[in-house]
């Protein structure tokens, strides 16, 4: 089956739907009209630019350029994690924790999937490595950002309870155990909901794209199952690492709660 090519004027027609929505938002005085239009413009510009970059990267196919592309994606994802928190750790901790967590989880799961499961030749083939890493980073970023935001807000809200438990002789782990579990649950809920609804309520994006490009539905389903499982693993491990490191940072060596290490975004 041949893929139907889309022209720019056809994309402009689709953009009119967003413009119409923005007009309704303005009329309803929801206060997010500018953000909606700005996000739509960023989507168009960013995806267009990344399209040119990926075409050049696919043509070169060298591991150095693939690694540099992955590093750039990781750093941008780390910045987004920090930007999405209402309260973030001072200094470079807010950026470092999210970036390190995604590096350990998303990168390791991506490399493992490429080498052991998919097995392209070479294993770092950008056609497989970059899309897979991008999907893992995007979803892991969301999970970590939600978890860290829930953790920082929970500690601030339950400050007296946490400090009371510390005064009763509990360790910092015991004093904030429930808050840590709640933060981890918040980070995992998006991917859990996505897996529960996949195929029944929604057709995931990768599967839909493959089917539209002419891939057999059975093969598209296999790839989508693989992606969902790897995203779940990357998000889960990344969330666990981020919450563990961030919660430890909120207490000093004497196991005192240090909310002064948080600052408003």
Layout of helices and strands:
Elements: H1 8-28, H2 33-60, H3 63-83, E1 87-89, H4 93-118, H5 126-157, H6 159-167, H7 172-175, H8 177-197, H9 205-212, H10 217-249, E2 262-264
Antiparallel strand pairs: 1-2
Helix pairs in contact: 1-2, 3-4, 3-5, 4-5, 4-10, 5-8, 5-10, 8-10, 9-10
Structural commentary:
It is a multi-pass membrane protein. Its main location: membrane. The chain has helices spanning 8-28, 33-60, 63-83, 93-118, 126-157, 159-167, 172-175, 177-197, 205-212, 217-249; strands at 87-89, 262-264. By secondary structure, it is mostly helical. It folds into 2 domains: 1-60, no CATH class; 63-264, no CATH class. Strands 1-2 form a two-stranded antiparallel sheet. The radius of gyration is 21 Å and the shape is globular. It starts with 7 loop residues before the first helix and ends with a strand. The mean pLDDT is 89.
Q: Please indicate the percent range of residues in DSSP E strands (runs of 2 or more).
A: under 5%
Quickly give the structural class: mainly alpha
Number of strands: 2
Largest beta sheet: what is the strand line-up?
1-2
Number of helices: 10
Note the run of SSEs as H and E. HHHEHHHHHHHE
Main sheet? 2 strands, antiparallel
* Mean pLDDT over the residues: 89
N→C terminal distance: 50 Å
Give a quick precis of the structure:
The protein is built from ten helices and two strands, in the order αααβαααααααβ.
Question: Which keywords apply here?
Answer:
265 residues; 2 strands; two-stranded antiparallel ribbon; 2 domains; mainly alpha; globular; 10 helices
């Amino acid at each position: 089956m041949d893929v139907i090519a889309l022209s720019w004027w056809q994309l402009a027609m689709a953009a009119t739907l967003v413009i119409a929505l923005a007009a309704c938002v303005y009329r309803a005085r929801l206060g997010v009209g500018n953000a909606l239009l700005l996000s739509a413009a960023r989507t168009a510009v960013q995806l267009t630019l990344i399209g040119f970059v990926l075409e050049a990267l696919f043509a070169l196919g060298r591991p150095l350029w693939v690694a540099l592309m992955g590093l750039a994606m990781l750093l941008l994802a780390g910045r987004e994690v920090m930007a999405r928190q209402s309260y973030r750790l001072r200094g470079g901790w807010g950026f470092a924790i999210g970036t390190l967590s995604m590096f350990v989880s998303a990168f390791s799961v991506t490399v493992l999937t490429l080498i052991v499961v998919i097995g392209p030749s070479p294993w770092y083939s950008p056609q497989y490595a970059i899309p897979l890493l991008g999907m893992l980073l995007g979803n892991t970023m969301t999970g970590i950002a939600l978890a860290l935001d829930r953790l920082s807000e929970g500690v601030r809200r339950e400050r007296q309870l946490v400090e009371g438990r510390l005064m009763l002789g509990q360790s910092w782990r015991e004093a904030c155990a429930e808050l840590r579990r709640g933060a981890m649950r918040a980070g995992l809920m998006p991917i859990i909901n996505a897996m529960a609804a996949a195929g029944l309520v929604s057709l995931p994006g990768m599967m839909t794209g493959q089917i539209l490009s002419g891939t057999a539905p059975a093969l598209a389903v296999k790839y989508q199952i693989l992606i969902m499982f790897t995203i779940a693993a990357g998000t889960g491990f990344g969330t666990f690492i981020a919450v563990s490191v961030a919660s430890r940072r909120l207490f000093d060596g004497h196991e005192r709660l240090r909310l002064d290490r948080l600052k408003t975004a």
